[in-house]
Amino acid sequence: MSTATVSLQEQLITRRMGLWLFIASESMIFVALLFTRFYMQGVYRPEELNQVLGLVITTILLVSSFTANRAEVLMGQGDQTGFLRNLGITIVLGLVFLLTVVFIEWPEAMHFAPPSTGYGTLFFVITGMHAFHVLTGLIILLIVFFQGRRGHYSVEDHWGVQGGVVYWHFVDVVWVFVYPILYLVGP
Amino acid sequence: MQESDQSKKTLLRRGVIVFVGLAVLTGLEFWVAVGGLPTSLALLGVIALGKTALIVEYYMHLRGVFQTDEGGH
């Protein structure tokens, strides 16, 4: 193993560590917000909340995680076309998720918009914070997509793809908790 | 190093299996919530943790953070 290869692999471990520390710190924000939901509102949930729409956008995000994983695996195998196709689908699904939340879900949730109810405050803060992370994830994936089109990544070194995809999965993991805590918990 | 054909298929198949698992758990949590089971809060927590474990282990490769394999899988 050459010195250059060892250096590349050491860099990879350092980058992964940095990303995971960042994810851990970001997670703390959401943990605090989600606990606040129970502290302020218990298990109360307004009847107007559209649980089916919540299920639909959850499914969209779930499928986008699947295609993101495929994109990463295919890049690792040198399949540039498959990588770009799956990453493109991921970006489109992420955009559909974001637009659905902003233009369908939020207007529907105006029934309990802040400051009229405590639940409304929590709902818009938590989904707003998550939507912001979806937006940043989309920007990252778009950068990865265009760099991929220019042939920036190789089978040996595609950290940009891995990092972007891991961040996208983090956005999905956050929603794994946001969805039941906001949409499903309650009588 | 490019992976073998068998390894390629295994990785892609694993992604599909994890996705199916996540879809089943999502359907289950919706059913638990709509069904209004008395223990739904605890069940929803367990299901969410199960989904997180699947994503973190198989999609985010947490266990591979310190691995020195090229390509990073």
Characterize the structure shown.
The complex is a heterodimer of chains A (187) and B (73). Chain A has 187 residues and is mainly alpha-helical. Chain A has a single domain, classed as Four Helix Bundle (Hemerythrin (Met), subunit A) (Up-down Bundle), CATH 1.20.120.80. Chain A is built from five helices and no strands. In chain A, helix 1 packs antiparallel against helix 4 (118-149) and helix 4 (118-149) packs antiparallel against helix 5. The longest helix of chain A has 39 residues, at 3-41. The radius of gyration of chain A is 19 Å and the shape is elongated. Chain B has 73 residues and is mainly α. Chain B has a domain at 27-59. Chain B has helices at 5-35, 40-59. Chain B starts with a helix and ends in a 14-residue tail after the last helix. The mean pLDDT of chain B is 83. Classes of the chains: A mainly alpha (187), B mainly alpha (73).
